[in-house]
Amino acid sequence: MPSARKSSTSSSTDETCSICMETLASKRSVSLRPCNHSFHRTCISNWFEAGKCMMPADFTCCLCRTNCEKAADDKNDIVPRFFPFEMKEGIETFIRMLPKYEDHLVKTECEINNAIQALNKEKKLAIRKKKSKEFIVDLDEEIAKLTDRANAVADIFVNLSVEKKAEYIGLDEEKYRLENELENNETIEAEIVKIKKEMAAITKKMNEIEEEVRGRFKEFCSKMAAKTTPSPIAAPTPKTAAPAANPIDTTSSVQAGRAPAKQCPHQIADILQRAVNVTVVERDPRWNDCVNKTETDADGRFDLLIRAKELGKIEPYILIENNCNLYFDENERPPSCWRYTSYDISRYPKSSPQICACEWRGITPVEKLEMQRDRKSWDRAYFIPYGDCRFMQAYCFSSGWIPIILAILLLYLLFNHSPMYSKEFRNAIAAYHSIQMFYDIHHSYLFNPYPLFPMPIFICNGFLCRWGAPTRLLMTFTGLIASCGSVGLSTVVFMRLRNLLPLESRFRLSVRESFALMGFTAIVFISNSIGMALYAGDDPRKEAILNRTEFSWIRQRPDALVWGDMHIFPGLLVPILTTALVEITGLTFTLIYGLVFYPGILIYSAVALHRGKKELLKLTSRKVSNDQGNRMLQIQLWGSTFTFLLPLGLLISIVKLGAPTSNKYIHSVVRFLGMFLFVNNTMVAIVLHLMMNRVYQNSK
Predict the structure, then answer these.
(1) What are phi and psi for residue 290, nearest 5 degrees?
(2) pTM of the full predicted structure?
(3) pLDDT, tens only, 198-220
(4) Strand 70-73's sheet: what is its strand order?
(5) Domain boundaries, given as residue ranges, for the chain
(6) What tens digit of pLDDT does each residue of 338-353 get?
(7) Where is the signal peptide (predicted)?
């Protein structure tokens, strides 16, 4: 009888886990060595880690209290045991006491990761063999526990490393401070003496330079005064020549058959004083006055050499004059550090009082822009290789009908063949593309501005222009369309963000913040449309522009609206300003705004979706469809931004800096690409959206 009782007890112990009292076959089991007691793997692991033992070598069997040297599974393979880094308090203090704890943590991390990989393989095998649900759950629980343990090991390593580095940095800073104090105490007296000597040497050198410059200036002024003649210049004749004692312009002036012009020495002295930044210590008495009348050069130009050797760099200046001709001795070769400037004065009326009033001042931005336009004549900037009616008609047809057809097709696909989209998303995208389609119709047929790159000339030849619509109506219509498109884009983007992001996301904008940003966008575009509606009009050179060869196809429309060379608003005159407001300034601010607004929306939404991805997948029932729809919207916005900002930036840069080449064929290609992107950027975005829609449908 005792023998039978003992056999029954042993059999029961082998078949059930003594910790959870369930059969061993329901989960994975291990056998402890050397006592050979068997338990569920997770049960004995929790028993070990719940105790006060700090090392796996101190783990004991829960039945016989024998030290567990190792644990083996049913295949007699050794099961690794890991310290519960995520559960013990004061673990960092304990780990810090170990020698070479960094190597120990790294080795433990690798072993845990290997164990996780082995468990994943075992899970796949169990699923393939159709193990019980309890068996699979047991594997999942151990994988999750080891994953947390690996993260805890990594956190401990990071914390200890940061503390060690901070301590090292603190000691290093303290050492550096003490060394500096010691060095300052030892060398402070020697440094004072050394600095005093250096200051004396620098002062002496500065005095020598000033004396040298002052001497050169005196010599130059004396030379100029000696060349000045006190009597008026006779009228230029082929036989008249300058006196030998006054060698001013003895080469070019005599050869051209004219006498050199009268000097203004006191003005020269003032100019040179500003250029070389020195003081005039002596002034020749003959410099006090200047003759009231002087002769103009036959070619209507004057030359000026500005000496700026000592200064090295001077700001650009222009000379406001009344035919006060200034010459240096052309027999002398000017140094390379002199600046040479030549201006045309033939445009000044010769009947005006010829007073020698040489005034120097800085160039204003408007004058600088006019000088650039003079150098880059717009008459040579345009060329169309096939600039006849057929080319222009083909271009207008393709740029007009293609985006409209694509927009209609896209709307059809969105409403009828996009089951992966939620209804809300389809409505938002369809509303936005409806605005874009209306914008394309307006640009292609109602308004039809034809832009010419690289210099901006717009010719309105659309239906509204042909029907004689006033300029203000055209510009108001354009501004309102642009405003609606911008507000529609903002609405779609922020509607999507508020629907996709979870409530607790810190990137989620409130309704008030969203409408504030959209309101700012609307104000910017509407104000721009108001300004264009009130002050825009035909270019003063409209007739000359329409008579150009490449515009032969539009000559039958003399009533077309023509803007040329970034037209100036003729009615917008501010009393404080001396010139009218140039449209290029407005376009520059528009470009800056676009560079901030469009990429800002994209970066904002991308970061927000990345940060809230886990919560998004948990809270959104339509996570697959909306997530894919948002990706398509992001790609479309990037395409629209590129096609809008690239041609606009090209336009402004060429207007301000000039074209990189004068090759007319290159100009033609750049102009065609620029106007294609700028006018038809919505077409590019729609094509991109259609392609993404098709790819996603094929992937389902």
Answers:
(1) -140, 145
(2) 0.31
(3) 777 777 777 676 676 666 655 65
(4) 38-40, 29-33, 70-73
(5) 2-165, 261-363, 384-699
(6) 333 333 333 333 333 3
(7) none
